[in-house]
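Usage example:
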Amino acid sequence: MSSPQPPASAAPSPATSIRDQGYRRYAGGRAPRGQAWIVIARSGIRTMLGKKAFLGLLLLAWFPFFVRAVQIYAAANLPQASQLLAVTAETFRQFLDQQEIFVFFITVYVGAGLIANDRRANALQIYLSKPLTRAEYVFGKFSILAAFLLLVTWVPAMVLLLVQVAFAGNFSFFVNNVFLFPAITVFACIQVALGASTMLALSSLSNSSRYVGILYTAVVFFTQAIYGVLFAVTRTSSFSWLSFSANLAQIGDVLFRLRPKYDTPWPVSFLVIALVIAASGFILGRRVRGVEVVA
Amino acid sequence: MTDTAVVTLEGVTVTYGRHAALRDVTTAFASGAVGLLGPNGAGKSTMLKALLGFVAPTQGQMRVLGLDVAAAPLDIRARVGYMPESDAHIPGMNAVSFVAYCGELAGLPRVDAMQRAHEVLFYVGLGEARYRNVETYSTGMKQRIKLAQALVHDPDLLFLDEPTNGMDPKGRDEMLDLVRDLGHNKGVNLILSSHLLPDVEYTCDSVVVMDKGRVATAGAIDALKQPRGRVYELRVKTPTGAVEPFLERLRAAGLDCHATDEDVMRVFVPGEGGAHDLFALAAAERVQVRHLRPSVPTLEDVFAHAVGES
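Running the assembly step on the lines above writes:
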């Protein structure tokens, strides 16, 4: 075929030298399908760990752990403190309660931009033109947030359990409270699933991570405020199912075998949490697409 | 459909709400470099997105590299590279990290992905800028990095959606050289979607012309440019000085003509009559032919003819 001339400067151009750099076919191996979420999670975690402010937040989030570790040490080794600082199952429940504020800040810091930034940069069509499903993409993003949230909830709580065994020098507390292991695990998982899925869903709704952060804050505090108003009017905590944190607290109390704080039956709280997670999944299914359909 | 087709569509309709972007499209893209040509809104980008599985057709079947798009979209995407039309990158990464990341997403081992990233960045001319954050790139550089991320996993087929958009003339020439090199020297099949006729004519061997969601014409560019008649560039002087009546007379005689200047026109004469027919008509209208030159048909003629017909 006779080659038509290029449109503008048709003469041999510097592009010739570009071609000289060569392009060769790839003959190496490829990873099995279904592992792209690991690539996404690894990259996201590495990116966050490269931020000094975030590392500072993580360190701060471990401060209550050290306080609790000192408490456990004192209770185990100082007779005069053993009554005042006695370690019970409730100690672990209180510890996870204290971590809620860090869960909130880490969710906002890490999660707000996870999908919003990709939407802003039109990265979704890059991701989804590769051999990965939308579910893998979402799970990869979810894993980034979940990893950090578990790092400030489940991991320190489990380490505290080990610390208790180590300082006490016996397994009696652990044996008497063996339910703590599943309780901590299930509570942390529910807490992470609720926070991460809600944040991802909100993140998929906007191109601005700042806006998403504000939106998440509003959702958390607004639901609590509505419950507060209803409580003030009705003097009953039956409406606690309206509050994000109250639902979590209710489930937490049941898991740690404590008397629930609110009148709402725990299955209702659990159902509300499940519905929020399901709604988040639905939103993500609608919003995470390779092409934005405006019709 | 040809046996060597890398992409086939059979009766494909894609709708966005009530708007049909593709209407019962049946066509095939041969191996090598194929242009997907059409004006804005013709359905080119929608076709590429449907082939990638981004949008599901309401009816019809599509096959890419012998694989059914509905049944094996991931297998297809593993072998296809896509360069989107709009700016697209992973935020917060420099070029080499971004391209290596795309390689890993496509299944390349980490070390191989990084090595390929360096290679393709040099190939597309971003070797010196590969440690710069992508967000600081100029429009032309962003086009190149989109090509690099599409190439990093060594696809068998490339979808290039308006790859020269927003580029200056020099950058555009370089991009077209790269595309031409990939299609003709590197054994990569590619579909180049563009509304720019010269881009397609320079880089591709065959073309599919789209208009209003339908295929207007398709085939090898050389074959399409073979006229079933002849094209002449013609300059005339009429008794009244007005060219329009003569143009009307030519059209009435079945000739396709377009005035390109005051008294210059391009005339397509079907059949074997050629210049003889033109002279006969001019004599009958007492029009003097001042200039007559056979004209080489361009892809623009093919495009105008196809779109006009559709």
